[in-house]
């Protein structure tokens, strides 16, 4: 409990403290029969600004638990919340790509629980959300593990590195995001005064710099300037999606568009998602608006989450800092040893829009 309170970035009220105490008691009872596994409370899903109540790693199954302490009913938005966490882990957290993920809503005071369970129709090893109370949670977990015992690779049960796994969108979500953007009328998203030729020339110049920089094994920084409405945002989005298309063809050319303008990200995300749903409806196809929004997140993100993902480790362990030429810098070798590929980041190209908004005065 003390560790949870000290690690929280927010003020802890009495209700939150009591909820944690209840959760810990339930988890102790749940995990007694198991010798190996890991429990992670208040887990921040990489880059997405979401926090799952509890992650339990048993064998190769990832249980995602959302607790509603004191609740006597299963609310639809609570079920969607835990399902959303599970799908985000499957699509964006590298160590979860090849694992079975089970979302469970635990409303502690309900009288009933899920007695049937099944994996999603999407064949992605994510279960349909399960609902239970605190008393029946143990049996539910035991039954799920029994259901998956034939899928477990006994040579690969090390869960210790799961929590350090980096953000990494799956190829399927990259393809979906690329298709979504290229089939959208971008003029409807971003108003710009620039001509199509000007936008194309600027985009092509940046893509050429990226190509030559990669061939030389160097790094480059580009500044795109212009008055408001000149088309800077549109250039950034176009570069990001062109890099995505290269990833679809087998090249490791990922890019991410990062904005410190939260309302802009919301508008872009919702515009693309709604447009995809409209196109699907016109074709008589099913399209979940939540899935569409998730696809957008693979290449359009809030800059603060990107920043926090890379600097959070510095707050945890000062030994990763070293004095270099009188300046305090990251001890890159030590960081890599402790965090592996997470230090590198999955994208080759980061596009910053309104980057100054990422920082407070302090």
How would you sum up this structure, described in words?
- The protein is of the alpha/beta class and about 350 residues long.
- Helix content is about 40%, strand content about 15%.
- A 5-stranded mixed β-sheet has the order 1-2-3-4-5, sandwiched between helices.
- Mean pLDDT is about 80; it is low at about 155 and about 315-320.
| Major sheet characteristics | 5 strands, mixed
Q: Which class best fits the helix and strand makeup?
A: alpha/beta
Strand order of the largest sheet: 1-2-3-4-5
Radius of gyration: 22 Å
Poorly predicted sequence stretches spanning 5 or more consecutive residues:
153-157, 317-321
Report the order of strands and helices: HHEEEHEEHHHHEHHEHEEHE
* DSSP strand count: 10
State the end-to-end CA separation: 30 Å
**General shape:** elongated
Mean pLDDT: 79
Indicate the percent of residues in helices. 40-55%
Number of helices: 11
Beta strand %: 15-25%
Outline:
With 362 residues, the protein is α/β, with parallel strands linked by helices.
List keywords for this structure.
5-stranded mixed sheet; 16% strand; elongated
Walk me through the topology.
Elements: H1 2-7, H2 14-31, E1 38-45, E2 50-58, E3 61-68, H3 76-92, E4 100-107, E5 130-132, H4 137-147, H5 171-182, H6 196-216, H7 232-248, E6 255-259, H8 262-282, H9 289-296, E7 300-302, H10 303-316, E8 321-324, E9 327-330, H11 332-339, E10 349-353
Parallel strand pairs: 3-4, 4-5, 6-7, 6-10
Antiparallel strand pairs: 1-2, 2-3, 8-9
């Amino acid at each position: 409990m003390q560790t949870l309170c000290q690690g929280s970035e927010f003020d802890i009220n009495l209700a939150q403290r009591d909820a944690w105490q209840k959760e810990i008691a339930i988890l102790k009872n749940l995990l007694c029969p198991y010798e190996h596994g890991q429990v992670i409370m208040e887990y921040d899903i990489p880059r997405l600004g979401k926090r799952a109540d509890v992650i339990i790693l048993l064998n190769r199954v990832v249980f995602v638990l959302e607790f509603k302490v004191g609740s006597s009913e299963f609310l639809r938005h609570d079920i969607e919340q835990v399902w959303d966490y599970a799908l985000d882990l499957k699509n964006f957290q590298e160590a979860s790509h090849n694992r079975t993920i089970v979302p469970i809503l635990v409303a502690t005071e309900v009288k009933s629980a899920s007695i049937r369970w099944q994996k999603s129709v999407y064949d992605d090893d994510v279960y349909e959300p399960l609902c239970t109370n605190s008393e029946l949670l143990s049996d539910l977990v035991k039954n799920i593990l029994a259901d998956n015992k034939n899928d477990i690779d006994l040579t690969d049960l090390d869960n210790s590195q799961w929590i350090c796994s980096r953000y990494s969108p799956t190829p399927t979500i990259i393809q979906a995001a690329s298709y979504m953007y290229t089939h959208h009328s971008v003029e409807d998203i971003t108003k710009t005064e620039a001509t199509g030729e000007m936008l194309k020339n600027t985009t092509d110049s940046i893509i050429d710099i990226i190509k030559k920089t990669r061939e030389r094994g160097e790094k480059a920084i580009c500044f795109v300037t212009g008055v408001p409405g000149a088309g800077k945002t549109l250039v950034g989005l176009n570069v990001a999606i062109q890099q995505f298309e290269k990833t679809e063809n087998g090249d490791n050319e990922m890019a991410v568009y990062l904005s410190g303008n939260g309302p802009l990200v919301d508008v872009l995300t919702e515009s693309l998602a709604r447009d995809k749903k409209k196109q699907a409806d016109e074709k008589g196809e099913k399209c979940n608006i939540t899935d569409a929004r998730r696809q957008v997140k693979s290449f359009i993100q809030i800059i603060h989450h990107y920043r926090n993902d890379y600097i959070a480790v510095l707050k945890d362990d000062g030994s990763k800092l070293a004095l270099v030429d009188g300046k305090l810098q990251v001890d890159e070798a030590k960081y890599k040893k402790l965090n592996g590929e997470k230090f590198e980041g999955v994208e080759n190209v980061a596009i910053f829009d309104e980057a100054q908004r990422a920082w407070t005065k302090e």
